[in-house]
Amino acid sequence: MAIFIQLYQSERNGTTKGKWYGRTKIVGTKTLKDIAERIQRNASMKRSDVWAVLTEVPEVLSEMLCDGYRVKIDGFGAFKISVSTSPAKTAKDFDMDKNIKSSRILFQPETEKDGSHGTRSRVLARKLDFKNVETMTKTKKKK
């Protein structure tokens, strides 16, 4: 399989105007059912057993994150909670309800160190193959 790249021309004012960039073109969506079927083909478990386990993952992951843990899934990556806050003049002035603006879940893909160069690479991205989607390459039409 390949990651499809769609080209587009920037219309933003400044140094990027008129330059061409690439962005990924999603070919569809896969669900937990699709994952369960693929695991069934690769393992000795029935799809229903895999499905039962996979449907519990989001609930357990959510509970662990809500308890303040960073959750690492070997071979995949780690999840953690992050917040955006507004400043307070002193620690006493910081109010959880007023100063916390938003929260989000961050995902950090697992990385491995390359022995020859000492650099780190993402495990999930090691096998990426990129292809240009020429039929989708176009400039934005002005309104």
Give a quick precis of the structure:
Residues 1-111 form the HU domain. GO terms for molecular function: DNA binding. The protein has three helices and eight strands.
How would you explain this protein's 3D organization?
With 143 residues, this protein is an alpha+beta fold. Among the domains are: 31-68, no CATH class; 70-109. The chain has 3 helices and 8 strands. The chain has helices at residues 32-42, 47-66, 96-99, and strands at residues 3-9, 20-25, 71-73, 77-85, 100-109, 111-113, 120-122, 130-132. It has a 3-stranded mixed β-sheet with strand order 2-1-8, with no helix packed on it. A 3-stranded antiparallel β-sheet has the order 3-4-5. Helix 1 packs across helix 2. It is extended. The chain starts with a strand and ends in an 11-residue tail after the last strand. The model has no long low-confidence stretch (mean pLDDT 83).
Mean pLDDT: 83
Element order: H for helix, E for strand: EEHHEEHEEEE
**Gyration radius over CA:** 22 Å
Physical arrangement of strands within the biggest beta sheet? 2-1-8
Distinct helical segment count: 3
Can you tell me the residue ranges where pLDDT is under 50 for at least 5 consecutive residues? none
Distance between the termini: 36 Å
- DSSP E strands, number: 8
